[in-house]
């Protein structure tokens, strides 16, 4: 499997992923190649090339409907990036980490705060444990 960081390093692929995320939050069940071409203003061969890389990295899923293919975002592989990135944010910002805008449906403020507190605590604990294990040579 290709290194996910190499895959998302390309700006066009990140644009495609962001488009698929946006369309998913708008309730779309998949996005066709022609829709991606129209929305991003890039050629069909270029879109197809990047979608192949994203498929190989399992960042997108494809649903076939006759001659058309509809692509959707697969979030799970991005958890690798999240797991790698969070300790840097915790170390750099502590409790003052910047808010990240997510284009999903709004949730109640109390639920968002609770999720943020739990998420930061989990990331911090994971980082502490990983650091301790490294020091012990495990």
Write up what this structure looks like.
The chain is mainly alpha-helical and 138 residues long. Helix content is 62%, strand content 10%. It has a 3-stranded antiparallel beta sheet with strand order 1-3-2. Helix 5 (78-93) packs across helix 6. The protein is globular. The two termini are 26 Å apart.
In sequence order, what are the helices and strands, one letter per element? Answer: HHEHHEEHH
Number of helices: 6
Mean pLDDT: 81
* Percent strand: 5-15%
Given the helix and strand composition, which structural class is it? mainly alpha
* Major beta sheet, strand line-up: 1-3-2
* Strand segment tally: 3
Give the overall shape, derived from the CA principal axes.
globular
Write out key terms for the chains shown:
62% helix; mainly alpha
Provide a compact summary of the structure:
The chain has 138 residues and is mainly α. The chain has helices at residues 4-8, 11-25, 33-40, 44-56, 78-93, 109-136, and strands spanning 31-32, 60-65, 68-73.
């Amino acid at each position: 499997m290709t290194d996910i960081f190499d895959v998302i390093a390309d700006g066009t692929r990140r644009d495609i992923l962001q488009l698929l995320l946006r369309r998913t939050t708008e309730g779309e069940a998949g996005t066709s190649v022609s829709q991606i071409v129209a929305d991003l203003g890039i050629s069909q061969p270029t879109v197809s090339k990047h979608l192949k890389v994203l498929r190989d990295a399992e960042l997108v899923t494809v649903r076939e409907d006759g001659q058309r293919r509809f692509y959707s975002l697969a979030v799970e592989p991005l958890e690798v990036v999240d797991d790698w990135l969070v300790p840097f944010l915790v170390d750099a910002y502590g409790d003052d980490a910047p808010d990240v805008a997510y284009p999903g449906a709004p949730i109640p403020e109390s639920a968002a705060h609770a999720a943020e507190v739990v998420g930061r605590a989990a990331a911090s604990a994971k980082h502490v444990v990983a650091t301790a294990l490294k020091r012990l040579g495990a």
